[in-house]
Design brief:
Layout: E1 6-10, H1 15-28, E2 31-36, H2 41-53, E3 58-62, H3 68-82, E4 87-92, H4 112-135, E5 139-149, H5 161-181, E6 187-192, H6 199-204, H7 207-220, H8 229-239, E7 251-253, H9 262-267
Parallel strand pairs: 1-2, 1-4, 2-3, 4-5, 5-6, 6-7
Helix pairs in contact: 1-2, 1-8, 3-4, 4-5
Family: Belongs to the short-chain dehydrogenases/reductases (SDR) family.
Organism: Hyalangium rubrum
Keywords: Oxidoreductase
Length: about 270
């Protein structure tokens, strides 16, 4: 009997990470090792129940996956639970960035601690986890390592300079890791998608602001709506398959054409 394979999901308690965890357990038969910081305990418990209902194993660890220490500790726990060469899929779904301006006219600029934390959690930790997984011989043959990003690097958004820069760094890390891990049979890619509704988004935005957000996306997206976390999760499940083995070092556009109309909306707002 072949060894069971696992998916490692950072940020698995809610939102995109949670949906991916459930989807790959259901459609790909992967056990799940998830890490989260404990902010959404009820949602984390629901993820455990949904994965368990598929008949797959799940280990949810509460800790900070966005540091080098967290990556080392997580890899050690994973090795004890899953054994060597067991990780088929690794998904970096961490959102822990600071918003603010670099040189504001009023108020405090982004502090060096905020910049360092943003880059460590949203970019550097992808490298730390890749290093830890390789060091512990955890990657299964043909493993997939996947980072998640958004369109902010091509269409800037006020107050998100640090996050945007970290996502740009993540893209370069993915490309270099694709070069380093490709000869070993592994694939490293970046999946770019637009705004999706998550508990974090609903926590930040009021119902009125959410309505404006959804209307803006209705106008921007050719499909006339926002993407869903379920759609993202289904596509990630596809990326596990052998038919997409040729994807490597790629930034895969799953935005649904979100940025195509931005200039048109500015120049022709009444259309």
């Amino acid at each position: 009997m072949s060894q069971e394979q696992w998916a490692v999901i950072l940020g698995a308690s809610s939102g995109t990470g949670a949906s991916i965890a459930v989807e790959v357990a259901r459609t790909r038969g992967l056990n799940v090792f998830g890490m989260h910081r404990g902010r959404y305990l009820e949602q984390a418990a629901q993820v455990e129940q949904e994965v368990a209902s598929t008949g797959r194993r799940i280990v949810m660890h509460r800790g900070d996956a966005g540091t080098s220490e967290g990556a080392i500790q997580g890899a050690e726990l994973l090795l004890a639970a899953a054994g060597p060469r067991s990780v088929k899929l690794f998904v970096h779904s961490l959102a822990s960035g600071s918003v603010g301006l670099f040189v504001p006219e009023k108020g405090e600029p982004l502090h060096s601690r905020q910049l360092e934390r943003t880059f460590t959690a949203m970019a550097h930790s992808f490298i730390y986890w890749a290093q830890a997984l390789v060091a512990k011989d955890l990657l299964a043959p043909g493993a997939r390592l996947l980072g998640l990003t958004n369109p902010l690097t091509e269409s800037l958004l006020h107050n998100t300079g640090a996050i945007t820069a970290a996502k740009a760094a993540l893209e370069i890390y993915v490309r270099h890791l694709a070069l380093e891990l490709g000869p070993r049979g592994h694939r490293v890619n970046l999946l770019k998608f637009g705004t999706v509704v998550t508990p974090a988004i609903r926590h930040v935005y009021s119902p009125e602001a959410m309505a404006r957000l959804e209307e803006a996306h209705r106008q921007m997206n050719p499909s006339g709506r926002m993407c869903t976390v379920e759609e993202v999760a289904r596509f990630v499940s596809i990326l596990v398959g052998e038919d997409v083995d040729w994807f490597n070092g790629a930034t895969i556009d799953f935005t649904g054409g979100m940025t195509l109309r931005l200039l048109d909306l500015v120049l022709n707002p009444s259309r």
